[in-house]
Amino acid sequence: MKLILLGPPGAGKGTQASMLVNKYNVPQISTGDILRVAVKEKTSMGIKAKEFMDRGALVPDEVVVGIIEERISKEDCNPGFILDGFPRNIAQADALSNMLEKRNEAIDKVISISVDDEELVVRLTGRRTCKDCGKGYHVTFKLPKVSDACDVCGNELMQRDDDRESTVKDRLVVYKEQTQPLIDYYSKKNMLKSIKGEGGIQHIFDQICKIIEEV
Ligand code: AMP
């Protein structure tokens, strides 16, 4: 199973991908998560990427394409993978199809999750993450038991720099200009299935599983 989850930031790709990992036993590959680790560890890639991420811009294609090329060649990707946050423009999509072609592989399905802009802003600006273990919360939809402290490890919760309102708006513009054209790109290749990212996490998950299991 080789799957792409496509959708704007805040559509729930990461949440759905981690649920799919449990059900189908294939790894989730999130370029955003990989880049955030590199930023935290201050690797040379992380230092370069931070500058783009802080302003909601896309990190250069050669960096993210390199990340994906390396990651999908690992053994745990043999049964498949779920791409979350990649590709994000046509050049990345072309690079992905070329690298898979060389391996005699191909993406099976692309699932596009759509959510209204106003809802995305509420979801993204309210997101909080534990500084230590990375568990996710939300100021309205998923409060911790003790204010500002992680339920699991008790550490402080933080807001991602790029989840602040001004950057969120820039990320949505970048999505519309660069990533949204992929809906058409994959639709023309008959690879696309679209769902609405509303009605609850489990409801969305059920729809995704149904699409995956359709022949
Ligand atoms: P995400 O967690 O997927 O919202 O990604 C956070 C940030 O990482 C984005 O705003 C970009 O700056 C960068 N990023 C993640 N994935 C990609 C990608 N495929 N191409 C370029 N930049 C990316």
Keywords:
215 residues, alpha/beta, Rossmann fold, five-stranded parallel β-sheet, three-stranded antiparallel β-sheet, 9 helices, 8 strands, 48% helix, binds adenosine monophosphate
Summarize the structure.
This protein has 215 residues and is an alpha/beta fold. It has helices at 13-24, 31-40, 44-54, 61-72, 90-102, 117-125, 165-179, 181-188, 201-213, and strands at 2-6, 28-30, 81-84, 109-114, 127-130, 136-138, 157-158, 192-196. The mean pLDDT is 96.
Would you mind describing this structure in some detail?
The chain has 215 residues and is α/β, with parallel strands linked by helices. The chain has one domain (2-26, 79-212): Rossmann fold. It has nine helices and eight strands. The strands form two sheets. Strands 2-3-1-4-8 form a five-stranded parallel beta sheet, with helices on both faces. A three-stranded antiparallel beta sheet has the order 6-5-7. A hairpin with a 5-residue loop joins strand 5 and strand 6 (136-138). The longest helix is centred in the C-terminal third of the chain and has 15 residues, at 165-179. The mean pLDDT is 96. The chain binds adenosine monophosphate (AMP).
